[in-house]
Amino acid sequence: MSAGRLLSVLLLLQSRGRMSARAIAEELGVSVRTAYRDVERLQGAGVPVCAEPGRGGGYRLLDGYRTRLTGMTEGEARALLFAGLPDAAADLGLAAEVSAARLKLLAALPTGAREEAARTATVFHVDAPGWYREPEQTPYLPLFVEAALTRRVVEARYRRWRAPQEVSRRLRPYGLVLKSGVWYVVAATESGTATARAATYRVAQVLDATLSDERFDRPADFELGGYWASYLADFEARRWTGTATIRLSPRGRRRLPDNVSPEVVRAVDATATAVGGDGWVEAVVPTESTAHACGELLRLGADVEVLAPAGLRRAMADTVAALARAYGVTGRA
After folding, report:
1. Through-space distance between the first and last CA atoms of the chain, rounded to whole angstroms
2. Which of 6, 188, 268, 285 is deepest in the core (most CB within 10 A)?
3. Taking a C-beta distance cutoff of 8 angstroms, is the pair 159, 166 a contact?
4. Which of 213, 222, 148 has its CA nearest to residue 192?
5. In this predicted model, what pLDDT tens digit does every residue of 307-316 receive, in sequence order?
6. Which DSSP category does 298 fall into?
């Protein structure tokens, strides 16, 4: 028998009112028989749980009875930050703690506020991951959470994009960031100030990780939100390595937001000039690399033409020619 589960049954009845044994069982993930036994144990302990038989019946607390046993555990207090992010809480291994913390909060509220909180919860849902992408597998995420909270060093094997692809690192995790459904750990690889040593690692790229007994001190001047803002600014500065001049049809311009980066859309809006009387415009847009720009702009098909640089224009032409050959098109009849 779990004392924590008995408390959960008590708080459920306090926050929800009348509940059937089946509803209690489903809420707590136990069998209906276990729910019956838990209610009986509460009654045996002197808690005034009333049984109402018949259709629409169930269990409820005697009118006016309220428990004050709503103190949160350390894990539940940690989980409270993710009360509105159930998927993130599950990734972190805190799903049960979030559920328990939310239940205790509701039970502590007066009736009117509790009903309003429950009603609010039914009209908001947060879904962090982006479209057209499967959620990443992050089996080592809970380990990094523990490491960041307890200030312990992690021995990790990591896969990165440049050679050598697999590297070993001794990481001092300062914090974790959830960005568009992707988890990142911000960690130092050497002792020193946060601004000089911190780096960002994609948790899904961690191939192996072990929590060591070695402790570290997180720098007093490190602030996770400030670091992340600086990291994003630096990433954007390094991301765009050149520019391209393009011609774009009216339909192509309408299709831009669904096919290219927001920065490209803003660049078109800022630099577009009319060419001819058919609605086509000429604009200068930022590019990451020839290969990336070619792939992104080809999504627009015949609604875009690259004018410069020559390397990107040639890459577009070569790709179109390869497509024509693949489809058996040698020329227009």
Report:
1. 81
2. 285
3. yes
4. 222
5. 999 999 999 9
6. G
Distance CA 63, CA 49 (A): 10
Whole-number Å distance between alpha carbons of 76 and 91: 15
Distance CA 113, CA 119 (A): 10
Q: Are strands 198-202 and 206-215 parallel, antiparallel or unpaired?
A: unpaired
Query: Is the whole-model pTM more than 0.70?
Result: no
Helix pair 250-259, 262-271: axis angle to 10 deg? 150
Residue range 131-144, pLDDT digits in tens: 767 778 889 999 99
**Given a cut of 70, is residue 79 above it in pLDDT?**
no
Residue of 101, 90, 79, 175 whose CA lies nearest to 127: 90
**Structure tokens given for 98:** 């979030």
Four-point Cα dihedral 52, 56, 59, 64, nearest 10: -80
> Mean pLDDT across the stretch 277-289?
93
Pairing of strands 206-215, 166-179: unpaired
**Residue 229 token pair:** 């803002």
What average pLDDT does the segment 160-188 reach?
90
Residue-level length of the chain: 333
Q: Six-digit token pair at 128?
A: 């962090």
Q: From edge to edge, which strands make up the β-sheet containing 166-179?
A: 198-202, 182-188, 166-179, 152-159, 206-215
Task: From residue 246, give the alpha-carbon distance in Å to each of 6, 295, 316.
Answer: 67, 14, 12
